[in-house]
Amino acid sequence: MSVKTITMTEEQIRQLEQRLSKAQKRKTPPYARYQYQTSECVITAYESGKVVFQGEGADFYAQGWETAEPDARAGRFPQAGSDEVGTGDYFGPVVVCAALVQKEDVPLLAQLQVTDSKALSDDHIRKIGPQLIERLPHSLLILNNSDYNRVHERDNMVAIKCKLHNQAYVHLRRKAQGLPDNIIIDQFVQKKSYYRYLQRQDEVITGIHFETKAEHTYPAVAAASVIARYAFLRCFDRMCERYDFHFPKGAGKQVDTAIAAFVSRHGKEALYQVGKLHFANTKKAL
After folding, report:
1. I need a labelling partner for 100 at 20 to 30 A (CA). Which of 60, 80, 139, 260 fits?
2. What is the per-residue burial (b if ≥16 Cβ within 10 Å, else e) of 166-177?
């Protein structure tokens, strides 16, 4: 196997890190204790006790841990996964991607250091995004700000995300002429609520596994996360160029300042095209 997820005790996680002392220590992803890279494997230990081995050397580095419990779903291929980007950013679109990963794709994902996009630099995502887009069957949905503001008048953010994820899988099913049994969503809502939001949709994809922090465990979700982030960055770049304005990411105080400056230069009407108006930042800035 090229991906292996096991559960370790506290002591085993410490012992594993000692064994990896000669490996390259990488920036720790969210919810992780550490991440190391060898020539054949990327090893990430999470606060939950799960340890993910990804790469050609996954079996070699994972062997010998007595309490190892294989995560059958994470290592089952083909798998389809989806994730969204932009929901926490005031400026820029909401992007959802669903991607299909075969077992033979995993070595490339390990080589490209594909993981949760939040743990990768924008420069790295710009570099590997096109390669993933070319290699993996995927569906990419981009909800620009004007459409988002219009839709948000009747749907909250959770409803919007549910509908986008479902539609991404509908499109991927057509592209790939079917979906695998192993479908995973990085969970942002309870399964029951997810399907309740989809009651009026013409097509609904079922049989989905919902798991929090899934991008750390499932290659398909991680790949979808990176592709979505790459698309978001491209949209963001075009928006900055169009308005000749530096839009900050996120939703912090720097965004409040940017809103005021943008409105001063382009007017309130233009804000509808670049921001998510229901965010508290709008009221604070104006």
Report:
1. 60
2. bbbbbbbbeebe
Alpha carbons 155 and 254: distance in angstroms, whole number: 27
Instruction: Give the separation between CA 137 and CA 178, rounded to whole angstroms.
Output: 11
Rg (CA), the chain: 20
User: What local confidence, expressed as pLDDT, does residue 66 receive?
Assistant: 46
CA end-to-end span of the chain: 55
* Exposure b/e, 218-250, CB count within 10 A at least 16 = b: bbbbbbbbbbbbbbbbebbeebeeeeebebbbe
What is the rounded distance in angstroms from the CA atom of residue 162 to the CA atom of residue 208?
Answer: 12
Largest pairwise CA distance in the chain: 64
- Residue 1: is its pLDDT beyond 80? no
pTM of the entire structure?
0.77
What is the bridge-based pairing of β-strands 208-211 and 79-85? unpaired
Question: Other CB atoms closer than 10 Å to residue 113's CB: what's the count?
Answer: 18
